[in-house]
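Hey, quick one: can you model this chain's 3D structure?
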Amino acid sequence: MIWLYGQPWFLDFTVLGTNMRELFQVHPVNLSVAVWVGFLALFGIASDDGVVMCTYIKQSFQKTTPVNKEQTRQLVIEAGKRRIRPCLMTTATTILALIPILTSTGRGSDIMVPMAIPSFGGMTIEILTMLIVPVLYCWLKELQIKKA
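Sure thing. Here's the predicted structure for all 148 residues.
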């Protein structure tokens, strides 16, 4: 997202007479302490979703021990379905909470906007991890079954 903020074409359109580049204060952003704090917040929130997903999948495997690939996949799919909503809610609330910060223009916005950029961009990409974590967990379990 920091790279996108430096591109002249990013958000270069108007909605209801409001230029999106002006609304979101799009301009090149230097790596600063504020940006790194935004990365730290992103890593904490994004890793939380992975932990929520993996913990529940692990608990499902402790209750039922699959003996073949099909049972393993079915168990991961069921666990993933049960935990996708909490992960999506965490991601959605974080993204929605950052929109007012990204559009702020008052005192302190020169620090807060660069802090929010990596968190906002990362959380939009983090949606993929909700799909990747169960797939990787299933793959590892399938390898364990294959070896056994």
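One thing worth noting: Helices lie at 2-5, 20-23, 33-63, 69-102, 109-126, 129-147.
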